[in-house]
Design goal:
single chain, 399 residues, alpha/beta, Rossmann fold, Dihydrodipicolinate Reductase, domain 2, 2 domains, seven-stranded parallel sheet, four-stranded mixed sheet, 14 helices, 42% helix, globular
């Protein structure tokens, strides 16, 4: 195991996924549950000297204040942990962690996210000042907890898409954009990513927000030898798509249409009911099929908010395909799960693998992590098994 303490700085630290990540880690280090869903907990990584979960200190930022204790109780209620004393200890430790959460930024995040902000949001800052504020938060977190390194993970709500322009394509142009305070050229995710890389912190964008890892920031990460990766954690419908679509290729069956209907609750669903935010999500989900099949069948992804579902999400997919003699047939599947329970083990995997990559002196994009993302940066391969093999090969090479 790697020695020393690792900081994990969560953007959107009061949200459902962040809460599940923290609660799950606290339960795992107490031996109250098994690391189901974590690839890094399997034999595959036995010889990789990954950071121990007990050596992780959590921090982060949010644009909302308050203690989301109701989320903690909801998560524990769904878990296999039944001992009241253990649940109380976890709740108390979680409260201690969240009490130290920093102010976040909601810059150019759209009306849906702006409406969530309160005293916990950075205001009236220039771009350089805002970057400096985030960097100071990371520096203080490192110093206060005596950390050997920090991994930053973006778990915030989905922003409206950022249209890339010339200022995003290379580092020099991007620095000039910051210097002249071109506020429209960045979003909150851009600020976080740039600040993290400047501080030498590996950065994971688990969201669909396209403003996070623009080419200029990837260039900076390569130059500074800081590992970065995204976009959009692959937890449900798209995970099934990336495993199932290759079957049609293997049998030379022609997919005519693939319709996906998604309903979900929680804050993510509430934000995605707004068209400009939803469009960012749909973009990362829509590109998978064409890359796997080699052609683009009729395909639409529908996302609707159902408040009563809370953290649950349901996807119903209808696949219409053509077989021998042109006979038309269909396949349907339903995927139901708890969004945060599916995401949290992936986040813990990504944290451990990002820290490992940093310790190995790697920098820039981490294509070996493609299987964790709907739209993996720098990777054209979308078939799940082939993406997983990239991780297997990396693990073998890293022994």
């Amino acid at each position: 195991m790697k020695k020393g303490k690792l900081g994990v700085w969560l953007i959107g630290a009061r949200g459902s996924i962040s809460t599940t990540v923290i609660v799950g880690s606290l339960a795992l280090r107490r031996g109250l549950t098994e690391p189901i869903g974590m690839i890094t907990a399997t034999d595959l990584f036995d010889d990789a000297a990954l950071v121990d979960l007990g050596a992780i200190e959590f921090g982060g930022c949010d644009i909302r204040s308050g203690q989301p204790r109701h989320l903690v109780r909801q998560i524990l209620g769904l878990s296999e942990i039944v001992d009241p004393e253990s649940c109380m200890e976890i709740e108390q430790e979680f409260a201690r962690i969240v009490s130290g959460i920093d102010k976040g930024t909601a810059r150019n995040c759209g009306d849906a996210i702006q409406q969530l902000t309160d005293s916990m949001v950075l205001k009236d800052c220039s771009l350089r000042e805002e970057v400096s504020e985030i960097r100071q938060c990371l520096q203080q977190f490192r110093q206060k907890k005596s950390l050997t390194d920090i991994v930053v993970v973006n778990l915030a709500s989905t922003e409206p898409a950022l249209e890339l322009g010339g200022c995003h394509l290379d580092l020099e142009s991007f620095e000039s954009c910051l210097d002249r305070n071109d506020s429209k050229a960045v979003k909150a995710s851009t600020i976080y990513a740039y600040a993290a890389v400047q501080e030498g912190c590996p950065y994971i964008n688990f969201t669909p927000s396209s403003g996070a890892l623009v080419p200029a920031i990837i260039e900076l990460a390569e130059r500074n030898r800081v590992p970065v990766m995204g976009n959009d954690g692959k937890t449900g419908e798209t995970l099934v798509k990336s495993a199932l679509a290759p079957m049609f290729v293997c049998r030379n069956l022609a997919v005519l249409s693939w319709e996906g209907f998604n309903i979900l609750g929680n804050m993510d669903g509430s934000i995605l009911k707004h068209p400009e935010n939803r469009e960012s999500k749909i973009k990362t989900k829509d590109q998978v099929l064409a890359r796997i099949l080699g052609y683009a069948p009729h395909s639409r992804v529908h996302i609707d908010y159902v408040p009563s579902l809370d953290d649950q999400k349901t996807a119903w997919d209808f696949i219409h395909f053509k077989g021998f003699l042109g006979a038309k047939m269909s396949l349907q599947f339903v995927w139901q799960g708890y969004d945060s329970m599916l995401a949290a083990p992936l986040v813990l995997d990504l944290v451990r693998l990002a820290e490992f990559a940093k310790r190995r002196g790697e920098g820039g994009l981490m294509p070996q992590l493609a299987s964790y993302f709907k739209a993996p940066l720098g990777v054209e391969e979308q078939r799940l098994y082939e993406q997983y093999k990239m991780l297997l090969d990396y693990a073998e090479m890293a022994k």
